[in-house]
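A common beginner's mistake is to predict each chain separately and then try to dock the pieces by hand. The better habit, illustrated here, is to supply every component at once so that their relative placement is modeled jointly.
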Amino acid sequence: MPDFLDMAYKEAEQGMLAGDGGPFGAVVVKDGIIIGKGHNRVISSHDSTAHAEICAIREAESALGTHDLSGCEIYTTCYPCPMCLGAIMWARITKVYYGSTSEQAAAVGFDDQAFYRAFLTPESNQLVSMVYDDNPTSRLLWQKWLELDDRKMY
Amino acid sequence: MPDFLDMAYKEAEQGMLAGDGGPFGAVVVKDGIIIGKGHNRVISSHDSTAHAEICAIREAESALGTHDLSGCEIYTTCYPCPMCLGAIMWARITKVYYGSTSEQAAAVGFDDQAFYRAFLTPESNQLVSMVYDDNPTSRLLWQKWLELDDRKMY
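With all components supplied together, the output reads:
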């Protein structure tokens, strides 16, 4: 096991024992150095988005002063849930090392697999009802965005 | 257009004009009252996870002092990206009103569609390389989790 994954496990156990949330940890590494680490804090932070990967990414980006983690790797104790995999994509991280599977997480009661099923078969998504309200404000907003002089993409 | 979606558009435009990030806004509503609002702050916060929906969910959960937004609705200016749809699921929000489509977002340069494709066909995911490292620490951690006396699920 790479040392970085071991660090992620230590982070996970500390957080779990402190009652911060589930048994999940992650570290973000750039050029062989840990620049962000995190563990699940859903319970202690009253924040359903405070998963280990999200916390580690936010810490890394804060440390580097950028929203772009291109060239970094993330080591996480468990296969990322859809939210965290999306976060990894937006952070432009292209390599993920993970220490256990979604099946193992499901076996101890975490819902990732049900969420992935809802993503894979959107037409059978029973978790969230999506209601589209087509309206002119939307097109006006896109237009204003395209006309902005100092528009920054991410 | 419902008034709540209009509020989300106002939030989006304010954020965009302030240079905080892309033209996206969202509000979380419980029993007809806005309990959280947010706009994209990826640029100003150096935080790739600071999408409108995530910001609105975090504000709502902080206001209520819980990670569980069951019974709430979210109004968002654009169809949620995979990260935000995952966040909506974890927050246990079951109804999403959205004002424009992923196709419209793609037309002005936002990558959501490519991300969704990577989710729908994981075997052809060229965005992120996933490396599984099976190891005993993982099983030990799950075991410790299951043996915790005050284990809280979310």
